[in-house]
Amino acid sequence: MGGTSLAFPMMAYAAPDSPPAKFRRLEERVSTLLAGENIGFDLRAVSFDDGYEFFRITKNAYTLYPVASCFKALAVLYYLWYTPRELWQLTDDSPVFRVAVYSNNPLTGNLLQETAQYAWHSGNAIEKFNNFVSEVLRIPAGIYRWNWAGSPTGETTDERFASSLETRYVEQAGVRHEMDNLYTPNNLAEFYLRLLQRGRFDAVHPQAQEAVDTTRWLLSLQADEYQSFIERVWGEYIGKDGVIPAEDSPVGRVTNDAGIVQVGSSTYIISAMYTDGEFRFLELLRGVFDALREYEDV
């Protein structure tokens, strides 16, 4: 894939208190599984209580990929962060519920547009959302536009995140492609880490922790008659997947998923972004979770 810098190779590190031999076996198994795959991957073992990180295994974690609907998880937190608490709507027919659980595309634009009136950041609706991500969450990421049919943000853009063949692009088989709305696996993993860093934002905003807790709850709900990739291969999680059909993408079908999972008694953040086929993506995720089962002896 492509991006603003060279693709990072397979990388891993462990905190000093991680069992070294056991960790090396896991790292070697995941590295072998992902060898030769054009995948962006960020896996972290963390504490559910405070986000403390025990170890990390990555591949192409800082390479840009089409984010698809995965960014909507951040839009959910954005809405809950800035919308006055007394105006929150959390019923199963509310826009934020429909975006978090059912990935409703037009309502995503409504969420961004309506929240902008409460956000203190400068700029238009897209710029305000991106500024929240970069200035408050401290994640260097942003979408260029959300122009889904029926969305009030259809003509709104953030030129800072415009795609170009020089700086912001997707690369496949040595060919660069311009695509809207690019994130890295690291960006998504960092977002889910923020959801676990209890108390981090207490001094920033009075309803911050309640917004984080409610975001985690919404992202844990499973849609009727639909399962994300991680839900299919593992089960319950706190997260959001994303798909771009092959006919709408110059790099083929985009399949992403990211979130927080529980394996045995341990908590993991996983972020995976892929463009080489849904069937293979599911195979890779199954392989990762098989490796985690063995590591956790579950």
Q: What best-fitting shape do the alpha-carbon axes yield?
A: globular
Helical run tally: 9
Fold-level CATH name: Beta-lactamase
Distance between the termini: 34 Å
CATH architecture: 3-Layer(aba) Sandwich
Order of helices and strands: EHEEEHHHHEEEHHHEEEH
**By helix and strand content, what is the structural category?**
alpha+beta
The overall strand count is: 10
Spatial arrangement of strands, main beta sheet = 1-3-2-10-9-8
Uncertain runs are 3-9
Task: Specify the CATH class.
Answer: Alpha Beta
Helix content: 25-40%
Mean pLDDT: 93
What is the CATH homologous superfamily assignment? Answer: DD-peptidase/beta-lactamase superfamily
Number of domains: 1
Query: What is Rg?
Result: 18 Å
What characterizes the major β-sheet? 6 strands, antiparallel
* Fraction of residues in β-strands: 15-25%
What labels describe this entry?
about 300 residues, alpha+beta, Beta-lactamase, six-stranded antiparallel beta sheet, two-stranded antiparallel ribbon, about 35% helix, globular
